Amino acid sequence: MKELMISCFLHLFFIAIFTDAERLDDYIHHYEKLTYSPDTLHQRHLRAKRSLTDQSLVLRFKAYGKNFDLQLEKAKSIFAPDFKLQHRNGSKMAVDTSFIYEGTVSGVPGSFVHGAIVEGVFRGFVVVPGDTTYHIEHSRRFFSDEKPFHSVIYSEKHLNMDPYKHKRPEGAGTCALEQYKDQMEELAFKPLEKYEHNIKAALLKQEMEHYRSMYSREQNTANQESSQGRHKRDTLGLQNTCYMYLRSDPVLWELYKSKGVSDIVARDEILALFAAHVAAINKIYSETRFETYEKDANKGGFSYEGVHFQVQRTSIMTKESEKCDSILGATSYCNPNIDVSNFLNLNSLENHDEFCLAYVFTARDFTQGTLGLAWVGSYKNAAGGICEKYKQFPEGSAKVHKSLNTGIITLINYGREVAPRVSHLTFAHEVGHNFGSPHDSGNNCAPFGTGTSEAVNGNYIMYASATQGDLSNNNKFSDCSKDNISRVLRSIQNETNKKNCFKQSGVAFCGNGLVEEDEECDCGYLDDCKDTCCHAKQSGKTTTDDCKLRRDNSGNKYSCSPTQGPCCLATCNFVQPSANQTCRVGTDCVKRATCSGTSAKCPAADNNDDMTFCNSKSRVCKDGVCSESLCRRIGYGAGNPISEYEECFGSTGSDNKEQMCYLSCQRKNSTECISSADITAESPHTGFKDLLMAINGGLDKIKLQAGSPCDNYRGYCDVFHKCRGIDNDGPLARLKNLIFNEKTLQKIKTWIVEYWWAVMMMALCLVVLMGLFIKICAVHTPSSNPKAKPALRITDTLRRRRRPPPQQTYAPSSQPLQSYQQPPAPAGYVNAPQGPPPPYSASGGGPKRGHRPEDKKNFKKAKAVEKKV
Questions:
Q1: Mind listing the pLDDT tens digit for each residue in 405-456?
Q2: Is position 379 within any domain?
Q3: 312: which of 53, 80, 681, 754 lies 20 to 30 Å off by Cα?
Q4: For residue 84, is it within any domain?
Q5: Distance (Å, rounded) from C-alpha 647 to C-alpha 628?
Q6: Which of 670, 692, 725 delimits the end of a domain?
Q7: What span, in angstroms and rounded, lies between the C-alpha atoms of 836 and 853?
Q8: Counting beta carbons within 10 angstroms of the beta carbon of residue 811, is it exposed (0 to 12), middle (13 to 18) or buried (19 or more)?
Q9: Model's pTM, two decimal places?
């Protein structure tokens, strides 16, 4: 028995030792050692760097019982073509980024690899579909002493994304937005408050213009080609790239230098850090379809795909560049004790108009486990988020210029360096704020821990706290986030309240499934391509046949590829006109289109006749676009091709809110606005009557659709077809605006100038009243002067003194008294004075109740004399 216990103890002991040996830190619970020849890999990198063509690089190793064959190429999609490294003095220099690689795992369809080769050692991540994501890091990040292995590899399955959750206050997340939400929202709305009403009216007008053009040729084309699988290309188009400015502060520089590397290696490590974060969010955002809750485009739904990020400029701050050792010349980035909100503000104080977003990476340990903070974008009238410009904001009594297209990320949490996966998701989360998404909430958008069917898949990216990391939802945006982000993207594209800052990436990428620039076709990578007409992109190498049409047995190129358009058959031939195949469905304003037989692309369709009813007879067509008002149809005909009527606002300023939500028309150059509600059989407006008959077969009045502007753009028609004012801030806000608006203040100023003598009289009366108040209340005010009379209580001045009752005289009784009679006073006893005792003092020193001390002494003396007698 004893031997068995010892054996069990030793068994558990060795398990504990080996388990502890596999644990890297609080984030990584298991890892494997990785060793290969750094010299060999470095030489391969140098050959690929010197190559004039896109030579691939191969890295093979074994880990987790698998053989990894990484086929790598120089990354082209991370850094912009005009990428520069900027110094503190403003000078810029080109930097070699050829050590940044991307690629695939050979034999694994859909795999993705990103990393960097510095000093012959690869660090990065490997995405294996159906398995997990593996992360490879240099061993010096975890071990201070030299090890026989130069790298470690670990799986996301062995990651604890939030090991310090128990240290944070209850309800606090790794994003500090909730802590500073009120202050940030207050600042975001300040520069626009003065013009709030005008902006709301303008937004409403632009909203309706978009609604009217929803069935435009471009919109119809986008919707139709979307249904053919081309939606990704036709949403954001070529301008789909958000250019970023990424910086690191001196604290992060010191973190890398503390690992004993040279300045050049530290610089390359930080550039690799930037590239890894951008690659991570590119994979998330580019694969996401940001769409509204309403999916049907005919009902106002819309979506965007293909969002991409590129690094246009970087800055690496050091203690020398920021003059941290100088007492007078040191910049604010040298301050080690900046909280997260002030650190974000520090980034926002600089002009970032050239960029879509500007971020600073640091290694500061912020309070409450905060890992990031960013300004939230808005599709309404608030400042902040993507494409925001450098503008003035009130700060106290001063005005300060700030850029609110900013955010910050830290790599330290409770004194420990976070795992790359954690900071990647943090970066995606904060950029999500910039794109307009608040934190997820509710069972549908934060399902983990609820009873919903989606709970097992975890929370989404925009959840306030760190997610599990290995669940399917952790890499996705919730429907709530998609709806908000899609609306911000729409406002950016339409330039509703910001200028569109998205640009072309300048990079054509063979293998992305989109036919671009010199490509004849694009069916993706070889492992994914099902197209027999097109040469697929080969993993790990580039050939002249990539994304080119294949040849038949005679050596002739095929006519087309289905990736070129819907009018190409799987046999690589054009669809003939005799097939009468529809390639674009018809709409209210555009006829259906059929294949021409000469191109894989769908030809342009013919338009329906102008003034054809469209959008459920709420608009009419013009040049193939459902954009014109119904009023344009009045009087329109073969003999009169130009309508003389246009839409107007009926009953403007009227108290009848319902009357304002009926279609009204007026003749050009006329001031008479005729409402459809006023049309009767006896009405002289024949053209208007013909319009009503054509729409509903009678003279029923035409109600404007919900959301239509009314009252001269000062309101909108609600679902009850009543005109509702756009300023619905409530009675308190209206009262505030009434009192403190410029017109009221100007009236007050004019009255003061005109009736200055009344103002002087009121001021004099106020002084007199204040003097009387002070005089009356002075007796109740305690004083520190020992000679002053004690202060009276309010009750002492209000209480009426009671008079003593009158003495009564009793007639002598014939009966002897039965009560006790006091014996005669002894000799020497002085009788106490008759009458009431003196009043009590109002000072706090006297007794609260009972006799005064002097009366007690007299009473005791009398008792003593009594005893002696």
A1: 999 999 999 899 999 999 999 999 999 999 999 998 888 888 887 878 888 8
A2: yes
A3: 53
A4: yes
A5: 9
A6: 725
A7: 15
A8: exposed
A9: 0.59
Q: Give domain status of residue 416, yes or no.
A: yes
Domain range for 285 is 175-202+234-432+475-504
- Residues annotated in the binding site, as ranges? 429, 433, 439
User: Residues marked as binding for Zn(2+)?
Assistant: 429, 433, 439
Neighbours of 863 (CB within 10 A): 9
The backbone torsions φ and ψ at residue 105, rounded to the nearest 5 degrees and listed phi first, read -95, 120
Segments in 159-249 forming alpha helices (H): 177-189, 196-212, 217-225, 231-236
Are the C-beta atoms of residues 56 and 542 closer than 8 Å to each other?
A: yes
Residues 400 and 483 occupy one common structural domain: yes
Answer yes or no: do 396 and 499 share one domain. yes
* Domain end marker among 698, 725, 752: 725
Other beta carbons within 10 angstroms of residue 192's beta carbon come to: 16
**Alpha-carbon distance values, 288 to 240, 282, 283, 285, 468 (Å):** 13, 10, 9, 5, 20
- Is 78 exposed, middle or buried, given 0-12, 13-18 or 19+ CB atoms closer than 10 A? buried
Torsion angle, CA of 235/238/242/246, rounded to 10 degrees?
A: 150
User: 165: which 2 tokens?
Assistant: 């959750």
Tell whether 90 and 144 lie within a shared domain: yes
Active-site residue 866, yes or no?
Answer: no
Mark whether 262 and 411 lie in a shared domain: yes
Asked if 244 and 357 count as a contact pair (C-beta separation under 8 A), the reply is yes
Question: Considering only CA atoms, which of 168, 171, 169, 180 is closest in space to residue 414?
Answer: 168
Q: Do 141 and 55 reside in the same domain of the chain?
A: yes
Q: Catalytic: which of 156, 269, 322, 430?
A: 430
In a domain, residue 383? The reply is yes
CB 661 within 8 A of CB 721: yes
Which residue do the tokens 């002289």 mark?
684
Query: Is 320 in the same domain as 407?
Result: yes
* Residue 251 and residue 270 in contact, taking contact as beta carbons nearer than 8 Å: no
Q: With a cut of 50, which residues of the chain have pLDDT below it?
A: 1, 4, 9-20, 192-203, 205, 208-234, 811-823, 825-853, 856, 869
663-687 pLDDT per residue, tens: 888 888 888 888 888 888 777 888 8
Residue 384 sits in the same domain as residue 260: yes
Query: Is 254 found in the same domain as 187?
Result: yes
